[in-house]
Design goal:
This protein is an alpha+beta fold. The chain folds into 2 domains: 76 residues, Beta-grasp domain (Ubiquitin-like (UB roll), Roll), CATH 3.10.20.30; 69 residues, DNA polymerase, domain 1 (Orthogonal Bundle). The protein contains 5 helices and 5 strands; from the N terminus they run ββαβββαααα. A 5-stranded mixed sheet has the order 2-1-5-3-4, with helices on both faces. A hairpin with a 2-residue loop joins strand 1 and strand 2. The radius of gyration is 15 Å and the shape is globular.
Length: 164
């Protein structure tokens, strides 16, 4: 077992993990943060996207020990209490989800897109940057519209993590 210490959604966490434990397993099974989903285990679907030190990462291909000392943000850390983050609200308002399985990863990727490209991000850039996030329910039209609306609603604001 290896001891790791990291910050998850603004909260300091220390735990013992097996060196082979994936970050997604650690988040879901040890911390019970089940918003991060496991869809493929091969880094193909993007359902497991979280932010590690502000960068979008597929947590099914990162070991928990690699996150030692890092700051991790999951979908649970995006809202401010009961108030949805503007990107979450945009997904709801623009029907950017159907079954909801891919939605946490889509939102985390969307936040990364906005962080890298700004709040005036265009449809082509969104579509290109969604490569690696699969939705089996939609044709992506509403997801793209939700990201455009969420980016505008963010109005230059950065992601802040709500401590649990």
């Amino acid at each position: 077992m290896t001891k790791i210490s990291l910050t998850v959604n603004g909260r300091a966490v220390t735990a013992e993990v097996e060196p082979r434990t994936l970050l997604v397993q650690f988040l879901r099974e040890k911390l019970l943060l089940t918003g991060t989903h496991v869809g493929c285990d091969t880094s193909q679907c993007g359902a497991c996207v979280v932010h590690v030190d502000g960068a979008s990462v597929k947590s099914c291909t990162m070991l928990a020990v690699q996150a030692d000392g890092a700051s991790v943000t999951t979908i649970e850390g995006v809202a401010n209490g009961a108030q949805l983050h503007p990107m979450q609200a945009a997904f709801r308002e623009h029907h950017g989800l159907q079954c909801g399985f891919c939605t946490p990863g889509m939102i985390m990727t969307a936040l990364d897109i906005v962080a890298r490209h700004g709040t005036a991000v265009d449809e082509a850039t969104i579509r290109e940057n969604l490569d690696g996030n699969l939705c089996r329910c939609t044709g992506y039209h509403n997801i793209v519209k939700a990201i455009e609306a969420g980016a505008r609603a963010m109005g230059g604001a950065t992601l802040t993590v709500a401590a649990e």
